[in-house]
Structure formats: C-alpha cells, structure tokens
C-alpha cells in the first residue's frame, strides 16, 4: 500500500457524464491510501499541504492548469513543487490523456507544464498506442517511461432492441475542437439522397460556437443543449444506428465517451487515430479518414447481437476498473 496524492480532486460536477476521476479515486482507495481523498478543493495548494504525507503524486490533465483560476500563479507554484519533488525524491506518475490542451494549444504556460511533466515524471501512463507513439516521436528521450493501459470501463448497460430512428448520435460537451460544426457543414453540402437524422446532445458553453451549431438545426438535425445524465444518453443511444465522434483535433489520445459508448452497446464511428484506431479490431468500432467515408460506413448493417455481447463481455473483463488498478499497481511497483 502506498500513500498517493491523486490529482485532480474528485469533486464531481453535477450531472457530468464523465466520472473518470471519481471512479479513479474510489477504486485506487481500495488498495492504497489516497491522502487527499477528503481534502477541500484548493487547487495546487494541496500539493504542499499533503507533500510530506505522499510517496507518489499521480496526475491527470495537469497540463490544463493554466486554464484554472489564478492559472499563472498556480503554474508558478507547480514549478516550485516539482523542484521540491527532486529534492525530497518523491515519485510522479502522469496519466497522459491528450497531446496538449484541447482549448489553448498555443498557450505558453500550458506548453511549459507539458514539457516539465515529460521530464519530471517517473512513469507516464497513456490510454492508447498513439500516446506512446507521440512520446516516442516528440520526446524520444522520455519514451522508456511510457506504459499503455487502455481506458478503464465501468459496468455494461443492457442492450435494448429499440427502433432506430436516429442515424448519428453525437454526445458529450460541445467544444470547437470536436469538429461538430465541420461535420454539419459537410452534411449541408451532400446530395439529397444522403439525408441523415442527427441528434446532438451536450452543453455548449461557448456562445459564439453555440450560434454556429444552432444555425444548422433543421428537421433532420436536432440539438439538445443540456447536460444529461449518462443513463438518459444511454436510452437515446438505443435509438441510434451509430454513435459518431467528429474529433478533428490531433491532441486527442483517448476518449472516455468512446468507452461509455461501448458500455451502451452502440456501433461507433470515429476518426482513424488514437483509441478509435486501437479499438477498430472490435466489430462494432468503425473508423474513417474523412467525412466522406462516413457515408460509406453508414451502410454497415451492424454486428450480430451474439457477437456484440461476446466482444463487450471480453472487453469488460480485460479492462474494468479493478483490472485497471491492478495494471496501475504494476507501474507503481516499478517506481
């Protein structure tokens, strides 16, 4: 058992369909002492409060630190923290979810934190082979630190044999980096013979982008600008032929929404990179190179019910949260 500081704090945004950190805290605490489990959420100040109580600091999305409240001040504090880590020989494990910040890739402070984490991490966990390739190509001197562990999956939802009234369901927070507007613009340019019913479910906090998405809404395209519980998204997914991911950002390595879509028993369409490419060996995960390929993919009639259940069951058995923590344990034992 190790004393571990897990970042970020597991405070769960109400209604959020991405409980990754909440689950991580819960499962890690079954085998280790998570020192900041009940700590107030005071950002990087907790790194100093719990410094001498911790053997290992385990970070997720720390590269987004400059986007937080008092971001520059927190980055300065984080740089000092990394100096203390060297002096007192603490260990750092970094879960590399993305190849940088989705939202501010040109942010010098975010790039600074990213480079520091590459150098100062003792181990780097990534959820797809593309994450490993990214480090090998961009930071080859750090490649030996990288361990690939697939994104963990929670309990599977039962599959319901519902009428498919939606061609493509796009769900999750609506951000520009996801390229939803580009896909809708593509649909507007194709011929009438390729009309598709599209349902978009997710909150858009960018008012300018919200107007852009809303401008495409018509009798075939429905947009629900709300945060829905995952169980409600699951019910909608049962009526969709495909769950579609339109990511056009090369920062994406893995996707919690992809894993939750597997839980829903959906046929998934995603770009041919990152975790989508890794999981394309599954019969219900299809990839595309460009939006034109989506029209061809839409003709896929689906995996048989027995094959879908069998493949999902095997995937869950190999990649559930308990197995994930077992794999993380092997990383911790190697520090």
Automatic annotation (TrEMBL):
Keywords assigned: Transferase
Record-level GO BP terms: lipopolysaccharide biosynthetic process
Domain of life the protein comes from: Bacteria
GO molecular function (one): glycosyltransferase activity
SUPFAM superfamilies: UDP-Glycosyltransferase/glycogen phosphorylase (SSF53756)
Protein name: Glycosyltransferase involved in cell wall bisynthesis
Species of the source: Cyclobacterium xiamenense
